Amino acid sequence: MLRLDKYLADMGLGTRTEVKQFIKKGQVLVNEEIVKKPEYKVSAVEDEIVCCGKKVGYTEFEYIMLNKPQGVVSATQDERDKTVLDLITEHDRKDLFPVGRLDKDTEGLLLLTNDGKLAHELLSPKKHVPKTYFVIVDGVVTKEDVDLFAEGFQVDAELFSKPAQLKILEAKEQSEVYLTITEGKFHQVKRMFQSVNKPVLYLKRVQMGRLKLDETLKLGQYRQLTEEELALLR
Known about the structure:
Number of strands: 17
Number of helices: 6
Helix content: 10-25%
Strand content: 25-35%
Structural class: alpha+beta
Radius of gyration: 22 Å
């Protein structure tokens, strides 16, 4: 059972203060009867809730796949830059957050949810959840680079990289590769390639665990995960 004001706030009808005003003004119906007590307990399964003439269903957890564009920060709020949550225009929930971070200039797969337990499972260093990136670098990637990344190596004074899988797609003046890592240190992919004198020109995350980016999503677009995709994450 949930407090009526929490139910409405969770589903993006407003802040707790705002929805309390709707309730006290008689604008909320529970099973076709006006309820004016914010603390009134309702069932997300059995009760029908209507607020300001709009039926409000309840979903405890949401899972959104976003194809993050460049120029947007992976945060819930930022005073200077647009955040990934600013892109989610069709969902008014206030409790969504990005699972992990992608750099401002990095594109690709980002999961947004309000499921803290799942987020912890995906981000915990103990779980070693693999993350795969499509990378374009300045320079010819070699078999020596593949072997070095596979062994794990001292990237710089602060970072020792665990073994990572480097797959060469095109080895030329600007090489294209897939890189799979099992950690997520600050600017890790960029630092790894910088350490072998092949700076990153373009970076896009294409997979997290077994969840792959839906390539039909254009940059900035998003959708709910399917039940099958959610099962892959879990």
